[in-house]
Amino acid sequence: MNNNQLKVLDLFAGAGGFSLGFKLAGYDIVGAIEQDKWASETFAFNHTMAKVITEKIENITDANLLEIFDSESPNIILGGLPCQGFSICTKNAGDPNDHRNSLFSEFIRVIKLFKPEYLIIENVPNLLKAKNHDKQLIIDLIFQNLQELGYKVYSNILEATNFGIPQIRKRLFIIGSIHPLKQPFPEPTHYVDSEILPIFKTTLKKCPTLWDAITDLPEISAREGAEEMDYTKPANHEYQIQMRLGSPKVYNHVAMKHSKRTVERFSLMSHGDSLANIPEHLKPFKRNNQGVISDKIYDQNSRRMHPDKPCHTIPASFYANFVHPYQHRNFTAREGARIQSFPDWYIFKGKPTVVSQKLLQREGRFDEKYLCQYNQIGNAVPPLLAKAIAENLLQQI
Length: 397
Known about the structure:
Low-confidence stretches: 90-94
């Protein structure tokens, strides 16, 4: 099979990090299905040759799917479906009124329709412990479903830092293959100082730190930055050179509009400190009760990151989770994208942030009820991790 035959269809595609890794490895991204409008716009903008369908997968009939994608003959199908989508791999398990409970069935439906030679699922490691209402392990049911379709099935938990991504991020990957694979998963290429014996340092590269990843981006304070900016400093690390390759500008580098009180709060934090470590008078107020300090302080909120270590896991709400190592503000979307290993030319659509989904629903602001840039970035599969999987698979084909 040559590269021209490596056609990828991405289900539950999000902003396209999973597909980007395969694209960087030489695969042809022919299509994607993503229900969120802004995430879908991001995918389409950066994968211009792909057919991108913005719709819930359960609303697309077999006939529609065949009409849209059959001419492309996808032989690799990716699926980063939400963990809730695995809750009813068998009948009578889960809430039938919750559409998320049918997502794995929808994934299987598409697999049956196109019969790809390979499929890859990404999810959180806790899926290995998850059970349905009948106390059956979800992972066993996934294996069973795929094996019944004729696939050899493999699973492994991969750590992002092992593949040169400056972020502590473990993810479960499940690979289904019509043909047996001698080595389904890639071997580590990088190490973190505190986690490896000296003997291995001669064969592996050192994983970039957080500071290695972002130090060349324009220095901005709270309320500064822009959706498009010039570079103001040269790249000074191999990772920065890799991220800047092919990008004429810096995009999505807009700092949060913090209040003076929030900036003062951050200014008193040392590396590793969070809201739990600041003076009492600067702690957050109770919601809708101005002037009263909240008695609920979340230790993981607004923690100042260490510059000389990989970053903590970037979640969907990372705009409120981490404080820049030296600037008195949270990360920008672009800094999060760098930490996730998105190249600088990859532009995220939609608003940088939105208020709570519940508030948007209550106020009828449905034109904003989508995944903001931060959500898209935090939900994504790190492209360099996906690329490692794609390149390893290419060696097996």
